[in-house]
Structure formats: C-alpha cells, structure tokens
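Budget justification aside, the reviewers requested a transparent look at the raw inputs and outputs of the sequence design task funded under Objective 1. We therefore reproduce one unedited record. The lines immediately below are the structure tokens for a 105-residue chain.
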C-alpha cells in the first residue's frame, strides 16, 4: 500500500514537531549548562578567596613564629654572652673585643 497525501502530510507535520522538540531541548540544555557554569565559576571564586586567606594567615603565623624565635635567640645570647667571653674574638659583656690570645680566667 502506498502512502496517501494525508499520510505524507501527517509525516511532514510530525517531522517538524520532532525538529522543534529537539531544538527546544537543545536550548534548554544550553541554558542549564550556562547556569551550571556560572555556579561552578562562583564556587571556584569562593575557593580561591579561601585559599588566599589561608595563605595570608599562614604567612602571618610564620612571621610571628620567626619573630618569637628571634626574641628567644636574642635572650639566649644575652644570657650566655658572659659564658662565651673567653672565646677568641667574641664580644664581652661590655661590648669590647678580647685580645687574640685571650685565656680563660
């Protein structure tokens, strides 16, 4: 049996409907991808903000620890300067240099 004119017309209408349905689906997918991409970009921005804040915080913590170490080292040196004064060339408590051939007295 050969298709009639009505069958051909119905098939053509159905093809157009299918094409339109696919087009709408593609547009909906594109909109979804666009929204999703924006959400992902915002998440990435937030992650970078947190990352930068953590780096800053770590840098501050390291600087504070270094400063504390310097203070401890300075205190240690200050307390032990009199013990080290017999070492050749080391500064004494008064800040002068011992002679080259200094001896322990």
């Amino acid at each position: 049996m050969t298709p009639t004119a009505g069958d051909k017309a119905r098939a053509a209408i159905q093809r157009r409907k299918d094409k339109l349905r696919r087009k709408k689906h593609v547009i909906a997918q594109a909109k979804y991808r666009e929204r999703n991409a924006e959400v992902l970009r915002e998440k990435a921005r937030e992650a970078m903000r947190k990352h930068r804040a953590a780096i800053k915080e770590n840098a501050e913590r390291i600087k504070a620890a270094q400063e504390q170490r310097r203070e401890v080292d300075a205190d240690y040196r200050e307390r032990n300067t009199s013990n080290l004064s017999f070492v050749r060339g080391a500064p004494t408590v008064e800040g002068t240099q011992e002679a080259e051939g200094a001896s322990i007295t």
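The longest helix spans residues 5-84. Residues 1-80 form one domain. Computational costs for records of this kind are itemized in the attached budget.
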